[in-house]
Amino acid sequence: MQWENPIDGLPNKLAETSHENRGLDLLYSYDEGNKHLNLKNSNNKSKNLAKEDLESYITKVSMHNKYMDFFKYVNFALPTEKITQPNPNTYYCVDGFTPRLYLDIMHSSGIPETKYYDEATVIVGSSKGPPLQNILMPNQRIERFLRTFKIGSKIGLHASLTIYRQHTRKNLPFYPQTYLIPEEMDSFKKHFTDHEIWIVKPTGGSCGRGIFLINEMPEKFNEQYIVQQYISNPMLVHGLKFDLRFYVAMTSLNPLRLYIYRDGLVRLATSDYKNCQNDLQNLSAHLTNFTYNKDKPGYKYTDDLKFDGEGNKWSHDPLWPFLRQRGYDTDKIRKNAEIAIVTAFIASRPYFFDQKYPRVSTELYGVDMILDDKGNVFMEEVNVAPALGTKSKLDIKIKAPLLTDFLNLSLIPERTELSNSLEVLMESNKKLSEYVICREFEEAERRLGGWHRIYPTMETVSIEMPSETHFDRVLRRWIAMNYAGKLKYLKDRESNLSSVLSMVEYVTTPCTIC
């Protein structure tokens, strides 16, 4: 299948942008051949001056909203680093199972624990109890969204992508042919001969449990399954099938902001694929799940980082050079993986809008992909609450900075009466919201750490978004502006922040922009 160029729709997207909202629309011309924007009547010197003006404005003009800072945990990452002194105005609260790594980072960052939800600045954990998202104060944050299983379950992802495909009439080459059994049994029977082998996964399963392969139509299925086209020509590493774990952060629902982490996991099967590919019972050649393979003969743990790339679990770092040496275009592979991830989140996002305050949530996901021998990417599943255990040095290397940077990227505000009032007033003041959204976008760019933005970008904004909101359009226009245009846009909305702050009686210091 051929991948569509995600930037092909960009001229139309930019044409929708009004003079008022883009700021300095006529400063740009679109280069049709090279698919990028050029700055009219400009040179590097004036561009650098405009950038400096914007940076100076953002540095000097305060929103009076401070964000919490998190630091890598002491025990493993930086043994000589001093623990930050406790901050009496910020607390975290544990709600359900929480990886130890979260607690260590909170400890290293000087953030004490509270047992009370209403005192917490941030709530962590994967509770199965009553949802908290709709009862929190607007300036509190929780590390999960409502309805997250619309992307984080096999059924939810299948339903979301199926509806998206029907709505947009777009081909989704990253999503293998899939059926929900028994609901789509008739369609599956009709298309069974499309592929020689199918992989069958229990809808409620995890860690490889209950999975099996078929090359003949069973008389019946005893429970609910997701049945998927099996990728029978997988890319191999040292003769072994493997998959890739990408870490993805959704730090804002409206407008949508998505980020991918620079590192991740590579998980290898334990039996030679070519020797066993016709043996559908030998799942150690076909499944790459760590939980399934860790107790199999021949499984090699990687603890010493100097052996990263030699065992059955790697970081991404040794994989990309390995693939480049074998002629694969790794930039294209990563780009196609990012397009697949963005599309899946766009398809699932409408189900997340049940929250009273969407801004209270941020969430970390693990997205699993497999590659075929031509370098095409296929999405296996999206995991909510991805495993963050740190039993090995390899896990520590990836997950300690990953989680620290995720928390910093999430822009968790310190809880004050001012921050709460600002959140509430944003609901009724559109220009104030536009101002804050663009300022937060820029603040996040300064807190990326190992993260890298995949939505919105000049390429991915062309991916069709049926549920696009006004604030999505605000960010789409924002990233298309030059530095001078951004500065004008902020100054045009600056008075809204000034007037709001002047209304808040408990502000004792003068507003820096009044």
TrEMBL record:
Entry keyword set: ATP-binding, Ligase, Nucleotide-binding
Taxon lineage: Eukaryota, Metamonada, Parabasalia, Trichomonadida, Trichomonadidae
MF terms in GO: ATP binding; tubulin binding; tubulin-glutamic acid ligase activity
PROSITE patterns named among the record's database cross-references: TTL
InterPro entries cross-referenced by the UniProt entry: TTL/TTLL_fam
Record's protein name: Tubulin-tyrosine ligase family protein
Domain of life, per lineage: Eukaryota
Signal listed as a keyword: no
